[in-house]
Amino acid sequence: MLSSDQMNAIKQSAPLLKAEGTKLVTVFYQNMIRQHPELLNQFNKTNLMNGSQPEALAATLYQAALYIERLEELLPAVKQIAHKHVSVMVKKEQYPIVGYHLIEAMKEVFGLTEEDETLAAWKAAYDIIANIFITIEAEMMEENLKQKGGWADVKPFVIKKKKQESPSLTSFYLVPEDESELPIYETGQYITVQADMPGEAYVCSRQYSLSDQYHPSYYRITVKRDGHVSTFLHDDMEEGDILQVSMPQGMFCLQGDIKQPVYLISAGSGVTPMIGLVKTAAHQNLPFTMIHADRIEDVTAFEKEFERVLALSPHGRIILCNEQFEASGKGELVEKVASRIDRSFLQSVIGEGEGQFYLCGSPAFTQEMIYILKAIGIPEQNIHFEVFGGQSMKEIEVV
Q1: Active-site option among 29, 95, 190, 219
Q2: Does domain 4-146 have CATH number 1.10.490.10?
Q3: This model's pTM is above 0.85
Q4: Does residue 95 carry a catalytic annotation?
Q5: Looking at the domain covering 154-246, what would its CATH class be?
Q6: What is the 3-state secondary structure (H, E, C) of the chain?
Q7: Is CATH 3.40.630.10 what the domain over 262-387 is classified as, yes or no?
Q8: Hey, where are the domains in the chain?
Q9: Residues 181-203: tens digit of each pLDDT
Q10: Which of 137, 186, 368, 386 is catalytic?
């Protein structure tokens, strides 16, 4: 337990974390990776380089400072992060390494010394928070192993099929090398894919949403050409090649005990988890509306697949949006709208807005959708989201 003085010291550091947190975390990552380059295989290299990973951790530290007296309120966010940690195989013994370099970065960036009460308070707080993560992640790993066909860390999968969906989207059908049946997963979850890439000293990891419903023999991921590992998969990996794959993780799933209408709103590669979610909603006979926006060459990539879903779904609606469409209209079943997803368009589709809303896309897109939904009266507890490109609580705020 932290003392009241320690909690006060941490709360008083919140403004400094808000102002200088990204600088702090950037120094932290630089120093830690310099001394432990093997940890690179647990990060999305693109997100490290473009700053979204440091921003996400900086925002997490800031929230921890704000909520240090009531950390239980951050439990949903903790569980979400824990899913990612399990997916990239974070180990218990790595937490002291992270803690050491975080404290050293605080000394360097904030000018703190060993005698500072703030530094001592953060050391104590880190130990408490780390133990929370270690406990939750151990439980998740145990649950993975309990599942029929479950495994620890990663196992080899063969690329059974490689299918180009559009100029920049390619689907990969991955089957276990040992041909074992896959454990059941929830649509909306993701897997970690590891690849040995030329010129890289360590294996490279990237998380991809599963882009289909559960199938006992394969995982399907749909990869957009936009990053280090993704470009390698597009250009260098072929059918028959081997990738190392984790078990599915993640919390971006339909709320199982709720029978309200489902609204799925996505942009860009945010469509990938939505494919499985819309199929699940159709299978459960839930009223659903899916709205997806993308650049013109990609937005219709799964149109035929969506047509098959709607053919079996009397209560379903799927709308594809792009301002470059020549005109709005309805094909056989899928609708096309010459518009971006803005407030007036959403209002016309949602109406009274009763239901559960699932958002997936870039941080900027997700934030905009949250603001619009709240402005038209959607309750906070009915908004669920997954962010691609690094998740930052500075950018993604529901409250």
Answers
A1: 95
A2: yes
A3: yes
A4: yes
A5: mainly beta
A6: CCCHHHHHHHHHCHHHHHHHHHHHHHHHHHHHHHHCHHHHHHCCHHHHHHCHHHHHHHHHHHHHHHCCCCHHHHHHHHHHHHHHHHHCCCCHHHHHHHHHHHHHHHHHHHCCCCCCHHHHHHHHHHHHHHHHHHHHHHHHHHHHHHCCCCCCCEEEEEEEEEEECCCCEEEEEEEECCCCCCCCCCCCCEEEEEECCCCCCCCEEEEEEECCCCCCCCEEEEEECCCHHHHHHHHHCCCCCEEEEECCECCCCCCCCCCCCEEEEEEHHHHHHHHHHHHHHHHCCCCEEEEEECCCCCCCCCHHHHHHHHHCCCCEEEEEECCCCCCCEECCCCEEECCCCCHHHHHHHHCCCCCEEEEEECHHHHHHHHHHHHHCCCCHHHEEEEECCCCCCCCCCCC
A7: no
A8: 4-146, 154-246, 262-387
A9: 999 999 999 999 999 998 888 88
A10: 137
